[in-house]
Amino acid sequence: MWFQILSLVTVAIVFVVRLVVALTDRPTRR
């Protein structure tokens, strides 16, 4: 169903965004 696809895409985008934000928020680790 479209709702499932949209949900999966949304979760994937949110996951990537949070990952990027985490990496940007703590560049001290690198």
UniProtKB/TrEMBL annotation:
Superkingdom, taxonomy of origin: Bacteria
Name of this protein: Uncharacterized protein
Source organism of this protein record: Actinokineospora alba
